[in-house]
Amino acid sequence: MIAWIIAIVVIVLLAILYVSAYNGLIKGRTYVQESWSQIDVQLKRRNDLIPNLIETVKGYSHYEQSTLEKVVGLRNQLINMPEDDHQKMMDVSDQLSSSLKSIFAVAEAYPDLKANDEYTKLMEELTNTENKIAYSRQLYNSSVASFNLKIQSFPSNIVAGIHHFTISEYLQVPEEEKEAPKVSFDK
Predict the structure, then answer these.
(1) What pTM value is reported for the model?
(2) How far apart are alpha carbons 25 and 163 in whole angstroms?
C-alpha cells in the first residue's frame, strides 16, 4: 500500500515538473516573440517618420539628393522584407540608421534647417526612436538568452527536445559597427 502511495506521489511530482518545464518554455518563447514585436513597432514608427523628414529636408539640401534617395530606398527595402528574417531586417535597419545620421549631419550645413521647428521635432522623434530600437534589441537578446538557457538546462531540455523547441538566434552587431571610429587631430 505504501509503495502505491509513493509511486503515485512520484508520478504526480514528475507530471508537475514536466508541466512546469513546458510552461516555462512556452513563456520564454512568448517573451522572445514579444520582444521582437517591440523592435518591429519601433521600426514601423521610424519608417513612418522618415517621409516627413525627407519632405522637410528636401527643400534645403538640393545637392544631398543621393543621401535622401538612399534613405528612401532602405526604408522601402525594410518595409518589403519578410518578417521572419530578423537578422537581415536588423542589418538593413542598421544601414538605415547610418544613412539617417548623414541626414542629421546635413542640418549642420543649413542653419535655417536646424532652426526649422518641424525638422527639430522630427529629429527629436527619430533620435528617441533610435534609442528605443537599441533598447528593444537589448531586450530581445536578453529574452533569447533566457529562453536558450531554458532549452539547454536540465530538466527542461528534455521537454524542449520532445516538443521540438529550438534555440533562438541573437541579433548581431555588424563588424563595421564594432570598430572604434578613427579620430584625427590634424587640421
Answers:
(1) 0.79
(2) 10
Please give the Cα distance from 173 to 64 (Å, whole number): 28
pLDDT tens readout for residues 31-78: 999 999 999 999 999 988 888 888 877 766 654 677 778 888 888 888
10, three cell numbers:
512520484
**Phi/psi-derived region of residue 164, left when phi > 0, alpha when psi is between -120 and 50, beta in every other case:** left
What's the one-letter identity of residue 150? K
Q: Are 164 and 22 in contact (CB under 8 A)?
A: no
**Is it true that the peptide bond before 155 is cis, omega within 30 degrees of 0?**
yes
d(CA 113, CA 64): 13
* Model pLDDT for residues 102-113, shown as the tens digit of each residue: 777 777 777 777
3-state secondary structure of 42: helix
Q: What is the dihedral of CA 32, 34, 39, 41, to 10 degrees?
A: 170
Q: What is the dihedral of CA 142, 148, 152, 154, to 10 degrees?
A: 70
> What is the rounded distance in angstroms from the CA atom of residue 73 to the CA atom of residue 67?
10
